[in-house]
Amino acid sequence: QVQLVESGGGLVQAGGSLRLSCAASGSISILYTKGWFRQAPGEEREFVAAISWNGGSTSYADSVKGRFTISRDNAKNTVYLQMDNLKPEDTAVYYCAYKRTVVVDYEYWGQGTQVTVSS
């Protein structure tokens, strides 16, 4: 089992920045893909960004490309989401998730952290 705890959310004005962190504990293997997702009120949860187990590959939703950066520190068992030039439409609960590289669906989820961007 893997436990994930997000932090770093908060209230920020449009154009501002936040950095989310996701600390992992438990049966950690470096062979996990790490991802960030978000869910706005009344909306489906959507993919935001992902990073491969070795950091060699990243992917982003079109809506955040060029503004968000995902990174990880395997030594600290932590994955980050740097969010710059935030927009009101980025307001959502942000979740981190892990999955083994050999499976399709994300297996472990954090409890989420609220990000609110005011206009």
**How many strand segments?**
11
Distance between the termini: 40 Å
* Alpha-beta content class: mainly beta
Gyration radius, in Å: 13 Å
Question: Residue share in helices?
Answer: under 10%
Which range does the strand content fall in? Answer: over 45%
What characterizes the major β-sheet?
Answer: 7 strands, mixed
Shape: globular
The number of helical elements comes to 0
Nearest-integer average pLDDT: 95
State the low-pLDDT regions, or none: none
List the secondary-structure elements in sequence, H or E: EEEEEEEEEEE
Describe this structure in words.
There is one protein chain. This protein is an all-beta fold and 119 residues long. 0% of the residues lie in helices and 55% in strands. It has strands at 2-7, 10-13, 18-26, 32-39, 46-51, 58-60, 68-73, 78-83, 92-100, 108-109, 113-118. Strands 2, 4, 5, 6, 9, 10 and 11 form a seven-stranded mixed β-sheet that branches. The protein has a four-stranded antiparallel β-sheet with strand order 1-3-8-7, with no helix packed on it. It starts with a strand and ends with a strand. The model has no long low-confidence stretch (mean pLDDT 95).
Short description:
By secondary structure, this protein is an all-beta fold. It has no helices and eleven strands.
Main features:
globular; 119 residues; four-stranded antiparallel sheet; seven-stranded mixed sheet
Give me the secondary-structure topology.
Blueprint: E1 2-7, E2 10-13, E3 18-26, E4 32-39, E5 46-51, E6 58-60, E7 68-73, E8 78-83, E9 92-100, E10 108-109, E11 113-118
Parallel strand pairs: 2-11
Antiparallel strand pairs: 1-3, 3-8, 4-5, 4-9, 5-6, 7-8, 9-10, 9-11
